[in-house]
Design a protein that fits this description.
The chain is mainly α. It has seven helices and two strands.
Length: 170
């Protein structure tokens, strides 16, 4: 019996696997960078252990770098406690505010994706998937870019929620 020869598109399988891997790893890495706060932070000339990642000075807390040493030793201690980068957790003091201490901006983004999955799916059925994908990209990319420059915690959280909604449309 004669069998038809099948050709499989391995390039499409590789492309899909690569895209899924990129999407998954990016989402996981971003929350690490978003929620980063060093265990010890130096404010001016006072280095303190952070309590619950609340990035703010604590003059009454004990200094982590000894004061009765030479300037070089103290400077070396302060350099050892420098942050690797300045994250939104540090900039907005996210864990110091009542609302933000229990809700992270990553959670707000995921809630936005949840709402977006419910709403954007219905809109896509009505107006078409390509049109909703295009709208999601047109709104999502500038929102992602602008969320880095938003001034104020409320705007930052609103931007993350909008970004979550647009992620659902992709």
């Amino acid at each position: 019996m004669w069998r038809a020869k099948r050709n499989y598109r391995v390039d499409i399988l590789i492309l899909l696997t690569y895209q899924l891997t990129q999407m998954y790893s990016t989402q996981q890495l971003y929350t690490i960078f978003l929620n980063y706060a060093p265990p010890v932070a130096c404010f001016d000339d006072h280095c303190v252990k952070l309590k619950d990642k609340c990035y703010q000075p604590c003059p009454s807390c004990p200094d982590e770098c000894p004061k009765n040493v030479t300037k070089e030793v103290r400077d070396e201690c302060k350099r050892g406690h420098e942050a690797y980068f300045y994250s939104p957790m540090m900039e907005y003091k996210l864990k110091c505010l009542p609302f933000t201490s229990s809700t992270s901006s990553a959670e707000v983004q995921f809630y936005g994706a949840l709402v977006g999955n419910m709403c954007v799916g219905l809109l896509a059925d009505k107006f078409g998937r390509r049109r909703m994908l295009l709208i999601s990209l047109i709104v999502g990319i500038p929102t992602l870019f602008l969320s880095a420059f938003l001034d104020g915690i409320a705007y930052f959280y609103i931007g993350r929620a909008i970004l979550g909604i647009t992620i659902a449309g992709k």
